[in-house]
Amino acid sequence: MQVATGKSILNGIAIGKVKIYKAPSYEINENDIADTDGEIAKFEAALEKAIDGQNALYDKALEAAGEESAEIFEVHAMMLEDDDLQDAVKEIITGQKKSAEYAVNVAFNNQAEVFAQMDDPYMQARSADIHDIKQAVLDVLFGVDPASMQGTEPTILVAEDLAPSETVKLDKSLLLGMITREGSSNSHTAILARSMNLPTIIQCKEIDDSWDGKTAIIDGYNSCVYVEPTDDLMDSLSKKMQEDEKKLALLQELKGKDNTTIDGKTIKVYANIGGPSDIGMVQQNDAGGVGLFRSEFVYLNSKDYPTEDEQFKAYKLAVESLAPKQVIIRTCDIGADKTVEYMDLGEEENPALGYRAIRICLTRKDFFKTQLRAILRASAYGNLGIMFPMIISLRELNEAQQILDECKEELIKEGVKVGEYQVGIMIETPAAVLCADELAEKCDFFSIGTNDLTQYTLAIDRQNAKLEPFLDTHHSAVLKAIQMTIEAGHRHNTWVGICGELGSDLSLTETFLRMGIDELSVNPKSVLPIRKVIRGLDLSK
Ligand code: PEP
Ligand code: MG
After folding, report:
1. CB distance 92 to 98 below 8 Å
2. Is the CB of 430 under 6 A from ligand 1?
3. Could you report how far apart the first and last alpha carbons of the chain are, in Å?
């Protein structure tokens, strides 16, 4: 048995076979080749297979997500059929006497660069498509089957690190738990792991390719991993896993009950979601609504800018299926660690302090309007809230509100029904805390994003695992900022919630209630444990 340690993201046990997950990396040979005809034949065969692959993806996406989502694969197949691109590859093979792999890499990169340099944002976005189809052809040439990277059986996935865009693409039904060498506990990948209720260990330096296929146990309570565990350990941790399941069953008795303390104070306990696929979790865990719909996952899940209709469908589905419960949709918080190639946001020295969230939306007005129109259209189907992230000033809130009003007017003129909705902002920066009084006058609610508020208050990059020893999640400056925000909100009849990870910290539930918090929005699995704590509190004491 091997014991490895790391940092636990979720108290839980996972038992299963290990699957080593690796994004494919290729070593492309630059040597001259003699048999150019052979290379051309190899390229043509790979191309044909790649086109078949895109067509198969089209069929799969059509069945799972509809025509609009599937369309991109049709476009990819057409791009692969493009004669100019094929000729460019062949020219490199015959003219420069290079391998098919080398020629594909160079010719596709050149084409991607041509698109990237165009003025039209739509054409620029095609650059990412070229990279995608290049990957598809290279996968065939190198004999890699990307679908096989996760395997077909439920496993514990082991990886160096996982980007949020990789994590969202994983098949959740095949995941028992995750172990990564890198990662930080406040990263979006960790948040996703919690919301999927997956025992996860990060910063596990001992991970090793030799674990592949072996049985392992993740012990989230003790932040360790046992590879090829002894029979005794397997017995005791299997029992612990069963006890956890029983406890979970007991919590089910709290469904349908109020979030009311012994002395009669009631608050809202909402859930955080990443998209319509999490709606079931909200219902199963009896959350009172959705306090944070991280709409950027709609963008991360997409190969290109999601259209107004695509977004409308996703928002409507959530709002309509949960009505009359409130669903608060946060406008796109892309940037920093959540990036998508098609947006071409460029490299930055300090991404967390960079071009992200509302800053992108206010400077790319058409992009913002597409989303706002989709959200407003969904407002006709239930109880909706709109929330702007990363606001640092009244000017930004006013500008966002103005664009929202403009979209509403346009829709009404077009004869489209718009319902009632609340407008709120996230309090994620010390600037927002300090301006909370003036901001509160202009909105219906505040939602405190403690993940970023902690990052910016303590000047600790939430992505940097090295800084974890300096991170005190209960730092008095953060708690003071929360208290100040609640007080400022209440001075102006603005309700105040917390949607960052601190909201689910059961050791702080009493503190937050004593501060006067109105809502806690947490990962769905934390709703009932929080209800249990609230119902046991007596604030009069
Ligand atoms: C936060 O910052 O606390 C928050 C909820 O937003 P995100 O984690 O998505 O940045
Ligand atoms: Mg945030």
Report:
1. yes
2. no
3. 50
Q: Residue 99 is encoded by which pair of tokens?
A: 């391998």
- What one-letter code names the amino acid at 104? V
CATH code of domain 36-143: 1.10.274.10
Q: Where are the domains of the chain?
A: 2-23+147-234, 36-143, 263-535
The letter for the amino acid at 327 is: V
Whether 499 is a known active-site residue: answer yes
Query: Hey, which of 9, 278, 426 would you mutate to test ligand 1's pocket, going by the most ligand atoms within 8 Å of its Cβ?
Result: 426
* Largest CA-CA distance found in the chain, in angstroms, rounded: 86
Q: Which of 96-100, 176-180, 279-283, 479-483 has the lowest mean pLDDT?
A: 279-283
Mean pLDDT of the chain: 91
Residue type, 258: D
pLDDT tens digits, one per residue of 98-132: 999 999 999 999 999 998 888 877 777 788 788 88
Q: What superfamily does domain 263-535 belong to in CATH? A: Phosphoenolpyruvate-binding domains (3.20.20.60)
CB 243 within 8 A of CB 13: no
Q: Please name the amino acid found at residue 443.
A: C
* 450 touches ligand 1 (CB under 6 Å): yes
pLDDT single digits (tens) 131-171: 888 988 998 998 877 667 777 889 999 998 877 656 666 77
> What DSSP state is assigned to residue 263?
T
- Give distance in angstroms: CA of 474 to centre of ligand 1: 17
> What local confidence, expressed as pLDDT, does residue 69 receive?
56
What is the CATH T-level fold of the domain 2-23+147-234, as seen in this structure?
Answer: Glucose Oxidase; domain 1 (3.50.30)
Query: Following CA atoms 423, 426, 430, 433 in sequence, which dihedral angle do they give, to the nearest 10 degrees?
Result: 40
Ligand 1, atom 9, residue with closest C-alpha: 294
Helix H or strand E encompassing 477: helix 476-491
